[in-house]
Design goal:
It is built from seven helices and no strands. Helices cover 62% and strands 0% of the residues. The chain has one domain. Helix 1 packs antiparallel against helix 3 and helix 4 runs antiparallel to helix 5. The N and C termini lie far apart (64 Å). Belongs to the DoxX family. InterPro entries: DoxX (IPR032808), DoxX-like_oxidoreductase (IPR051907).
Amino acid sequence: MRDLSAALLRLVVGGLVAGHGAQKLFGWFDGPGMEGTSGFMESLGLRPGRTWAAIGGASEFGGGTLTALGLLNPLGPLGIIAAMSMATATAHRGKPIWVTEGGAELPVTNAAVAAALMLNGPGRYSLDRALGVRLPGWLAPLGLLAIALVVYRYGVQAEPQQQEEPREGLAGGEQQPS
């Protein structure tokens, strides 16, 4: 039953995270694509936005796909953890935990599931098992250390763009031209 539950978690969480990455990279599933994601990354203080959009999208799409397939464990879960950690440190920073308040409830949940899958291994019903693939055990702690350093340096220390306050006397909050 443990292998079946791992496969179910891998398929659902990995598949959904991969879909979220596809929204960023390709604009699939009504996503913003690279153009919209680049602007969003810039607004979070992640510059250049296009580079960070590619990194975030690839971490989600690649990490989610590898996780769903149970291939090259722990690389897939590390990709998910990286993307979710950066989202928590930037897009959800300073907000209450609950998603209804704009908080990091969902990325924290996804990262926890990915960490559990990484620790558990992909299980019997995985491509790693079918192909006899086993990556070295030191990749997981090294990957987590690298993620922590990158998230601290570029996420926690990132300066979001300040939105200019509307000037008084303009209708509808229109900005006065500079």
